[in-house]
Amino acid sequence: MNILISILSYHGSSERLKACLDTWVKNCHAHDLIILGDDKMPDRISDIEVYKPLVNEKYRDLPKKIKTSFEYLLTKEWDYLVKIDDDAYLNTTNLLNFLKNNIEPNLYAGQGIHFPSSKHPCYLSNIRDDLPPKSFKYYYAQGGCYVISKKALEISISNMDISAPFFAEDLMVGKSMNESNILLEDRPDLFNCGFKGKGWHNMGTRKNTDKENIDLMQSGYISTHKLNAQKIYKIHDQLR
After folding, report:
1. Does an H or E element contain 140, and which?
2. I need a labelling partner for 77 at 20 to 30 A (CA). Which of 6, 36, 64, 71 fits?
């Protein structure tokens, strides 16, 4: 089983990226790694390739950055792709446990978000929710961390529309999966966006406390999100 871990970053978040490289990335020695960066970053960081698909990228370019990056990543050898932001923490042991038990060839997994209509509000999937939601306009894995099989990406890549609503790369990916008849494996019991509550975000949710993030990583979760560098180090220190 070949896992490719892609870390979404840019030149302005070097402190967070360094925290990832100093902590959970050190546990990824058996997996391939790539940084999805920008043209102001070096070609390699800690001997990891930095792929720089765009020139002078802006936040609104995220869908194009991700689609272009995924097209490039499809030229590489891997079975599963992890897309993770540089403000997230990845527990590779829990990731491996999840993937070893996977029997779905068209895997697309993460913590779900759904929009009942084309406008806000939108809602996080929580444990004990009736999933998938009965109706939705958009339904996708929150972008802090999600996993895609190579077959699922090969099927869906042509449906990725870079004019995604809200400049949301994760929504773009989820929409393309839906259009390719690939259903999200919605796992709020394994992936966490870094918030507790339902309305995403700042609509009835609050950020996890440090203890809550540590507890998640110690209880089988694959990822948590919305972390600064100090919080990444703190989680890692507790897991050693």
Report:
1. strand 138-141
2. 64
Alpha helices in the chain (DSSP H): 14-22, 62-73, 92-100, 150-156, 169-179, 210-218, 229-239
Each residue's pLDDT tens digit, 175-207: 999 999 999 999 999 999 999 998 887 788 999
Numbers of helices and strands, H then E, in the chain: 7, 16
Q: What pTM did the predictor assign?
A: 0.96
Strand 185-186 and strand 108-110: pairing?
parallel
Residues 6+ apart with CB under 8 A from 154: 74
CB atoms within 10 A of CB 150: 20
* SS3 readout for 173-232: HHHHHHHCCCCCEECCCCECCCEEECEECCCCEEECCHHHHHHHHHCCCCEECCCCHHHH
Tokens, residue 114:
């759904």
Q: How many whole angstroms separate alpha carbon 181 and alpha carbon 108? A: 11
Q: What residue type is 180 in one-letter code?
A: S
Q: What domains, with CATH codes, occur in the chain?
A: 3-239 (3.90.550.50)
Phi first, then psi: what are they for 229, rounded to 5°? -60, -40
Beta bridge partners of 140: 113
Cis upstream peptide for 133 (omega within 30°): no
Mean pLDDT over 197-222 rounds to 92
Q: From the centroid of its chain, how far is CA 5?
A: 10
pLDDT in tens, 115-130: 999 998 999 999 999 9
